[in-house]
Amino acid sequence: MGRTAHKAEEQEARLTMDAVTSVPVPVNEPVRTYAPGSAERESLQRRIAELEADKHELTQTIGGRRRLAGGEPFDVVQPHDHGHVLGVSAQATREDVGDAVAAAKSAAREWSELPFDERAAVFLRAADLMAGPYRDTLNAATMLGQSKSVQQAEIDSACELIDFLRFNVHYARRILAEQPNSVPGAWNRMEYRPLDGFVVAITPFNFTAIAGNLPSAPALMGNTVVWKPTPTQQLAAHYTMQVFEEAGLPPGVINLVTGDGHAVSEVALADRGFGGLHFTGSTTTFKMLWRRIADNLDTYASYPRIVGETGGKDFIVAHPSANQDKLVTAIVRGAFEYQGQKCSAVSRAYLPRSLWENGLREQLADVTRTVKYGDITDFSLFGGAVINARAFAKHRDLLSSVDSDPAVNVLVGGGCDDQIGYFVEPTVLVSENPAHTLFSTEYFGPIVAVHVYEDGDYERILETVDSSAEYALTGAVFADDRRAIQQAHRVLRYTAGNFYVNDKPTGSIVGQQPFGGSRGSGTNDKAGSMFNLLRWVSPRAVKETFDAPTDITYPHMG
Ligand SMILES: NC(=O)c1ccc[n+]([C@@H]2O[C@H](COP(=O)([O-])OP(=O)(O)OC[C@H]3O[C@@H](n4cnc5c(N)ncnc54)[C@H](O)[C@@H]3O)[C@@H](O)[C@H]2O)c1
Ligand SMILES: N[C@@H](CCC=O)C(=O)O
């Protein structure tokens, strides 16, 4: 048999396999508790000690080869103990990024021609490695490098990342199964090709799961990727890449480059073969990258896909009928877990005067005072430090400005200290002015602004919540009165892409609350869902006619 005939047969077999197999039905990875005395706690503590004792060389992976970037070196430290260096990495140069782009291009054809099941198996295997032998490593790296408590690491670098990988395979299979109608004599098919170009994934510091999902989701759909994690998440990203490789990801499919990303936007976003951006991070960075892409529009072979999940000014609004205990728990967990550094974190709360003056103020202050931050290797603590010196300085400046602001009262907190780690106290600020910048600016730290409204002004305050900030990511209403809940649904319909009723607006779960927001919060392509995966395919409609006409006349022509 000739080589061409053999190739055609092989291709036919691939199409058939894509059409008939099924994939494992995903279930959410159970969250481990790490309770005192448990074996899982001991095992994790051992791994933390090992990672702390090591000084990692945090390399790039380009075309399957590890190498330190050619630019300026930088240290990766523990935010809660910034004198403790976990690893050394370096800024990617233009040459490094050029090599990563070349590696992505050269791996593209073979990877896209691999049957879907073979690609899916790589990521399902990665999920199992993360759930098993790599769980402690990824959790320890996330705790040490990003200053997460054990609970916050477990729901991120274990459960959410594993869920992304398993659920994406399930959703991708559903996309492939979505086929057009055929009529007698013709067969219509939809082929879900990857994009006609490589994808750039640029990822934030705050979620190891997001950092792993952004390159792997397009790769699952057959794309090759240049992935740039952020320096402060480099340790966990390093191990995530290691898992992908151990799971059998071929060289060049995901190419990790290190550093602040300037060379990535200069080289990869200016390449003719750039096919799409998968971004999560601040609104400012996303807008800057979008503008750069727009400036290069005439360079590209295709219109690039742009997916970005960005900042938030997430809220809780409570009706006078709200349950006070549940409300306080939601504000404190929502605002102060992971030091307020979730894009979904509560950073503004609108509370009715009747509750505020009948115990809510004192209860909120008392519970907030119990929140302790420190070295996250102490499992009794609630949280750690903010991510770096820049974040610390932003919070320090804000706290010192509110000290002398007559429009703001500090209910609790207000202190900060960066001698050992970048610590900012859990802080509740109260202002009578709902138009104060505290209610519109994303600070991304453990600070929540409270506005107390008159009970009769509920509808008006809902309108204020809607119009105060440029963002529309997450939000929650607390009420027992169903009419109040319905009013909130109506007025706040576009104020949050993830809306919660009587629950905190953080902690979405893959497969349960697909995540993302609109307005200044992003393109709302819902990470970990079919909506996101659809952005990484370029469908081709194929019609095959079995017995094509041989006569150009139509019946009306007689
Ligand atoms: N909506 C969501 O799903 C979501 C999830 C997590 C975080 N976030 C948002 O992310 C932000 C916090 O993350 P961050 O501090 O890492 O954000 P960031 O915007 O500072 O950085 C994000 C990424 O962009 C890179 N970057 C910055 N400048 C660049 C440039 N010129 N060229 C190329 N890359 C560049 C960074 O190195 C990093 O990898 C917050 O605003 C938060 O709300 C949003
Ligand atoms: N899934 C997370 C997303 C956080 C973003 O930073 C949450 O819902 O809290």
UniProtKB/TrEMBL annotation:
The metabolic or biological pathway listed in the UniProt record of this protein is: Amino-acid degradation; L-proline degradation into L-glutamate; L-glutamate from L-proline: step 2/2
Going by the UniProt record, its keywords in alphabetical order are: NAD, Oxidoreductase, Proline metabolism
Tell me the GO BP annotations in alphabetical order. L-proline catabolic process to L-glutamate
Specify the Aldehyde dehydrogenase domain's residue ranges.
Answer: 72-529
According to UniProt, the reaction catalysed is: L-glutamate 5-semialdehyde + NAD(+) + H2O = L-glutamate + NADH + 2 H(+)
Q: Which domain of life is it from?
A: Bacteria
Reply yes or no: does the keyword Translocase apply: no
Task: Name the chain's protein.
Answer: L-glutamate gamma-semialdehyde dehydrogenase
What is the source species?
A: Prauserella shujinwangii
Q: What is the lineage of its organism?
A: Bacteria, Bacillati, Actinomycetota, Actinomycetes, Pseudonocardiales
